[in-house]
Input
Amino acid sequence: MLRGRSVINAIRKLQAFTLSSDTTQHVDTTYMEIPVYDVEKPQTLEKRKARLHYQSRKRGMLENDLLLSTFAKKHLDGFTENQTMMYDRLINSPSNDWDIFYWIIEKKPTPKEFDNEVMDLLKKHAKNENRNALSQPPLY
Amino acid sequence: MNMIKSSRILMCMKWQNSMFAKRVLRDVFSGTKRNASYTIQQHKHDCLVIGAGGAGLRAAIGLAEAKFSVALVSKLFPTRSHTIAAQGGMNASIGSMHEDDWRWHFYDTVKGSDWLGDQDSIQYLTRNAPNCVFELENMGMPFSRTKDGKIYQRSFGGGTIKNGKEIAKRTCAVADRTGHALLHTLYGYTTKFKNIDLFSEYFVLDLLVQDEVIVGALALDMDDSSLHSFQAKNTVIATGGYPRMYFSCTAAHTCTGDGCAMAARAGIPLQDLEFIQFHPTGMYGSGCLMTEGCRGEGGYIVNSEGERFMERYAPKAKDLASRDVVSRSIATEIRQGRGVGPKKDHVYLQLHHLPPEVIRERLPGISETAWTFTGADVYTQPVPIVPTVHYTMGGIPINYKGEALIHVNGCDKVVCGLHSAGEAVSNCHGANRLGANSILDVVVFGKAIGLNIAKIANPGAKQPDLKKNIFDPALDNLNKVRNLHGSTSVHELRESMRATMQNKCGVFRDKKLLCEANFEIQKWYRMFDDLRMTDQRLNWNSDLIETLELQNMLQTAVQVVACALNRKESRGAHFRDDFPKRIDEMDYSKPTKGQTAKPINQHWRKHSLSKLDLKSGKVDITYRPVIDKTLDNEVETIPPVPRVY
Output
């Protein structure tokens, strides 16, 4: 009977510990690492492209909405699997949508892992040589 | 099939604790129910937070700290929430640059709201601002610093000290990316809690109501179109505003008023929807925002004659007057023929008289954005701008604790089970919001919700069983939308709605334009049933999601127009050409001694509450008085005066 009670107490302590929000006491909160979107999850190419269409149209701010949705409408359906993966990593790995924007308009240098042919296509697209007023294209 | 689904759920939730995992498994296996031909996976938590932006994340943190289990559901990955777009900063009277007092911030906010903001909520907001900023600083938010190491504060529209005597430097900033820093800090903090489950890229279809209590929500997993019911004793709506119903707006395409429409469908009247803030400096053509910080650092607006015309409209504050004052001034200049460009339909914002280092250091993103979307070089040319929808003051009515309200028999009554915060609500900002108050508002009321739910509920409390037919309204609607086979494309209807709102219910409003707007928006509302769904796929169906968003926008737009037509006065952001005066209970431009206050049905200093009949599109409008009484005697109620800057 005593053993049972000590087991119950141990379980209670375990519950209290696991539910405890004191976990941040031992964490350096001045640099917060946040989870990255899982692009490596296995999926068909068609499903990946459908997801990328949604994610190109729904960004954190209008500037990226306009640039990425117009770019996706023009190029995404014609991408190979390799190019699609590059685009997926580019728009889903960085935490700050503004960073993607600054790389595209070349205000900040593009990091090596994203400096590829898809990025070059994006940069060319953003130069807006035809001086179009950008607006989000219809889906169909 | 169920094994694969449940193991996928386990991976998504990043479980490390087997106790929690066992509880979830039990819910999935025993809880899978059938409704018509749909399988709905059941989740049960203490709290459900809808929306993972600034307000949603801060509420989730508060709840998790109080040991509640939280389901955080969002249609976007948290760092893609619209909070990231905020560039200006957050107001807090911490006094790093000069002596400051929260009571001056209180005065500015009450005056900015044109005496339509609830003064108890405003007191809560301004008094708790410094604490919230210091808390964020301790969480790791990297504020810009002055030479002494204090938090850098800049001036912002409408901020004054000594009750309007001088311009205040009260906006705490992180360069020009305060929104991103806030989101990154808060999201990072939430990942340290084991009792927050994140369900990202789930679109919430509807709230679940049982016995007049909100018991949770039904959501669609965009990945495979599976349905998930999230049962919770307390639900928090933090889904943002509804600016996307306008053609020109500075917001991302995600801001479609989903939470407001959800609450409307659950029978909760929405408050003050007609108050829409037009930001004076949105780039002409694309709608991208030129932050108010440009004017805070010394830029100013000129018309076709090169005149700095704001000196005429707001002699003291000039270009830093409240946003609605500046928007109306710009609209007046354009209407009177002093606009620039071939159509004379916009004006210029001038920055090239400032030293280039100031533009480079204090406003780093501005030059690139201006170049990409307008082709103007800020160092040498002025930028074309036009008033653009920036913020929607209206939404779900709440009190200072964050509880959603309805008004019955002359009293405010709390809606059981529902809280709300952020742009989706209407309490502090009244008829007009001051710049840099929104980012503050999301944090303060997100925290308030965490504190309030900790008082009124206990972690692990027993919850009622959901009735079998509780999902029927949401499923019927989903079925209907999926099987739309009409003749109108979603894109056409959306553009028609946006054009009507922009042209007929914009900065300038009068009876003729608003009646036309009402006629047209009712037409678009009925035309929703004639839409054509092109895409029937089950994985990442953007067509379905955008159609559901359009439905939410239409249901809100109908109410916006009805409220704008109904309010026959001008107050804050709502300006009517045919009723240009503010109509209060007394004439405050004269001494109030000897005047008797008019009864509430004879003046307009009251909140309008709109209720939509889903079948007919008819909007019913009732009223609720403004709360003037402050929380305690630390500050006195400020009586209305004419609002001039």
